[in-house]
What does this fold into?
Amino acid sequence: MNPTKHTIQQMLASGESETLEFKSSFDRETIETLAAFANASGGTVMIGVADNAAVKGVRLGKETLNEWLGQIKSSTSPAIIPDIDSVQYDGKIIVLLETPSFPVKPVSCKGKFFKRVASSNHQLQLSQIADMYLQSLQISWDFYPHADAGLDDLAVRQIENFISEVNTNGRFQLEESPLGALEKLRLIRNEKPTHASMLLFADQPLAYHVRVGRFKNAATIIDDRQITQTLLSAVDETMQAVKNHLSLSYHFDGSVKRIETWEYPLSALREAILNAIVHRDYTSPSDIQIKIFDDRITIYSPGKLYGDLTIEKLMGNSYQSNPRNKLVAEAFYLTGRIEKYGSGFSRIRKELAPYPHIKFCIEEIANGILISFIKHQGEPAYAASTGEVTGEVTGEVTGEVTGEVTGEVTRLLQVCQGERSRSELQQLLGLKHEEHFRKAYLIPALEDGLLEMTRPETPKSRMQRYRLTQKGKLYLTSFDSKPAEIFPP
It folds into this structure.
């Protein structure tokens, strides 16, 4: 080590950090800090320096340094043997204890585990200890065989679809044999499916849920849906459940093509949902929770940031990815659902650029990550556009639709084929709460003259049905999407 006076000056001036700690004297916390450094990126403890970087110095006996090394070695497991050096600085003695990042983590100090974060030591929870051990072995939890499953618990059809997607995407080529392909990707070990293969291809999806709720406020839920699906399918189903509660406006720019503007950028929401599903902690019993409010969308994913990731690194554009679920992440990458590791949050910020009124936030709460898309107060709900559609519906009937038609009303019109009852329409839209359906879908469509009652003289009749008006038909004529494309059977 042999530090020079200039090196000491630089260290004192830089202050405590992820790799540097000041201690007035050698004590138990010194050993905890060395263990925390070993579990992170390594670091140095300077003995004889106060927290404010004032040099106090220490007194050393003939065997003091050897005694300190003995205490460090006996208190840590695996044993840490740091480099140790004593130096004279301004007539006082400073001792430097330096340890590198330990190759097989985690290192304990008297049965407790710590990790250096910023300029302090944090005691690790049991799940973090397990994660750190797996990281040091370059494997992940999803690599291990599922104890209660056999190969007959996998859905062959889903595996075949996966193979086809991978080969079509072109990032990798798999053989046609389902089991052979899974073995090649290490998704089968010792003739048993791994946790990853069960998450991806289980014939009966495992009980890892995504909850999507529409809230009026924190205490009032308008609608909710629970999605329990294999992971590749869960992304699409979750995205559709979220879209069902978003508004859509449109306008024409002078060309034939209609321009749509969603309340939130769908690509950014999809990236956030992908991140939650791919990187959540599947050893946690908690669900992924998506809450849609009037002014924001929040996405909670169980599991704190993995590895050396921090919020600050995520908000930058140059962080390195270290997936918690390596095999799951690889499957999503091979099918083209994620582009490359460590770029998801950068893409979210890029997609939000045309939405300056939406703030993007990431925070660690409880035992998970919360992502929020928040609309600025006083700003429009979304980049609203209005427009006009005029045209001929039949040889005799013409009509006009002017202004904004919400996404809810548009989807209602799309599923209203022929005459439908209220319950039929609500079921086709996948909505559970009648009051929400009436307020957000049915009443606006009736008030805008896009939908009409078959029995207007008796609005509450049990025989009441609803059908498109000519104005509603005209609107759908201008709308390219077909109901079956948005609501598959």
User: Anything to note?
Assistant: The CA atoms of residues 98 and 206 lie 46 Å apart.
